[in-house]
Amino acid sequence: MKIQNQTKSHSWNRTHSTHKHTPTPTPMKKYVNWAVDLALVLVTLWGAVNNGFLTIETLMSFLGVAGVILIAYGRQENFLFNIVQNILNVVVSSKSKLFGDAAMAIYYLGTQLFGYDIWRKHRGKDGHLITDNRTDWSVVIAAVLLGGVALGGLSYVLGGTYIILDAFNNSTAIVAQYLQIIKRKRSGWLLWAATNLVGVYIWFGVAQPQIAIMYFVFTVNSLRGYINWNQLSK
């Protein structure tokens, strides 16, 4: 797998050195990726065995796992799985009165529909995404804080639960999704790791263990995705 680095000036960017060539992944890196893939599937399967196979939550978790694994490899095919998963997410989040999460699922759906063409236009000859490693963290932090205040107020008005955590979770996710899907930046994975950990706590708190397990799997994949997009681009 090859993931290259692209440099363009933007308000989210700071100038760093560029890498024109991507080394071929070593067998060990391939084996580590395969091991993570297997672990993610097995953990999700274990959750389904304990919480029921024939549920919308289980279908949602398996679609989500397939989608995030493909993103970690920079593969265009992730969009199909993630689009369906987020349609289901709107239903599950609304039922649990996590209105911020329901709104986020709609946002994810929109960015995926828009991001599909962006990824298609920024692929290397091997079919993998061309990424950008530059990030202006002062802008990112400001965006997360402003988004958290706005989403927290909205969730409070709608009578949501876990208002502060839900607002932080979704504000971080908004920025992470923008960085990763629209701007193709590796730093998006770090924000995803944070928001996924919060998601584990929230979903266990509203008695949705299968969805909580899905977010735990997402956390592991976030760390692997960052390594893939960072080390394999050098």
Q: Can you offer a commentary on this structure?
A:
With 234 residues, this protein is mainly alpha-helical. 71% of the residues lie in helices and 0% in strands. The protein has helices at 27-51, 56-72, 78-95, 99-121, 137-157, 163-182, 188-205, 209-231. Helix 2 runs parallel beside helix 8 (209-231), helix 5 crosses helix 6 and helix 7 runs antiparallel to helix 8. Residues 1-25 have low confidence and may be disordered.
Keywords:
single chain; 234 residues; mainly alpha; 8 helices; globular
Give Rg in angstroms.
Answer: 17 Å
H and E string: HHHHHHHH
Major beta sheet summary: none
Looking at how many chains there are and whether they match, the oligomeric state comes to: single chain
Secondary structure tally, helices: 8
The total tally of domains equals: 1
As a percent range, the share of strand residues is under 5%
Helix content: over 70%
Shape: globular
Give the uncertain stretches in residue-range form: 1-25
Amino-to-carboxy terminus distance:
12 Å
Protein structure class: mainly alpha
Mean pLDDT: 80
Number of separate strands: 0
